[in-house]
Amino acid sequence: SVAIGDPLFDVETDKTTMEVEATHAGTLTEIWADAGADIPVGQTIAIIVASGDSRSDIAPETATKAKPLTTPSIAPTVPMPAATQPKPVTPIAPSIGSTILASPKARFEAKQRAIDLRRLVDQGIPQPFHVADLDRLQPDPMTIDPTHRASVLKATFTWSALHEFIGWAEEKTGRQNMRLPTLAAITAAAFRAEARPGEAANVAVSITWVKAQQSVVFRNPDRQGLSEISQHDGDSNPKPDLLLIDLTGTRVSEYHPPAEAGCLTIVLIPTADHDGTAVLHFFHDELSLMAAARFLDSFASRVTEPTMQLL
């Protein structure tokens, strides 16, 4: 369903990125253009019909007879009618944890090149980002060797507050075994806030707790209430974005996971009764050093002060 004024999509021109709003109310029934594609001015890209109507058999050549909402791509030399003039997106100063502004085409191209847009933020390139900005990106100072081995970061933390928090959560929710859901929510929240802010629509976290011989996958655990966090119950487990190996409660003091592109791995190692170490394995062509450090620091902070998760 679409209401008048609802944002439909962003359009990139040579100079700016603009948001296009719906000028008709109804139901979006057809989409004829892919994100990131170049569309000629005047070409129909979508159809909105009156609510309750169904016109899925409309062909492009007859679309004007059905009076669809037609919004052309915008070229700097072609003015648009005042009624459909999109509002320019005002560039904002980037800040840690804020949404990254980038054109759909730039996001598509960055994904194709496996480029983390946060690296452009770290290098001071102004937002919103466009495809040309990807070519301005300077090489990461920590380059990968020919064997493509994962880089490693370590952070220390204290367990006591988390243990108390888990006990409190189990009492309040009436659920048992809240350790894995809580750790999954903390991991996903730190990932969204620092590693890929505003970009990850869905985050899958796979947790393996060696002592309890448990291995569970959670999908978007940070977007659910503590009493609602549940493991992924689909037909097949999604490929995890984050892998958490929990060695606490064992005498194992070190583990090097196999390198796997597209998946960040954190290994939790006990160092004392109340202290532990989190070891992050990552690739620099997927995550910059600064973004990885922010992510691990945020994770350790949330484990040490788990009430941050409630905020």
Question: What do you see in this structure?
Answer:
The protein is an alpha+beta fold and 311 residues long. It contains six helices and eleven strands. The chain has a six-stranded mixed sheet with strand order 6-11-10-9-7-8. Strands 1-2-5 form a three-stranded antiparallel sheet, with no helix packed on it. The chain has a two-stranded antiparallel sheet with strand order 3-4. The longest helix has 17 residues.
Provide the residue-averaged pLDDT. Answer: 77
Structural class: alpha+beta
Shape: globular
Cα end-to-end separation: 32 Å
Number of DSSP strands? 11
Strand order of the largest sheet: 6-11-10-9-7-8
Major sheet: size, sense and barrel closure?
A: 6 strands, mixed
Count of DSSP helices? 6
What is the strand content? 15-25%
Radius of gyration, rounded?
23 Å
Proportion in helices: 10-25%
N-to-C series of helices and strands: EEEEEHHHEHHEEEEEH
Uncertain spans = 61-97, 141-147
Question: Mind sketching the topology for me?
Answer:
Blueprint: E1 7-12, E2 17-21, E3 27-31, E4 46-49, E5 87-88, H1 104-112, H2 118-122, H3 131-135, E6 151-158, H4 160-173, H5 179-195, E7 204-209, E8 214-219, E9 242-246, E10 264-270, E11 275-282, H6 289-304
Parallel strand pairs: 7-9, 9-10
Antiparallel strand pairs: 1-2, 2-5, 3-4, 6-11, 7-8, 10-11
Helix pairs in contact: 5-6
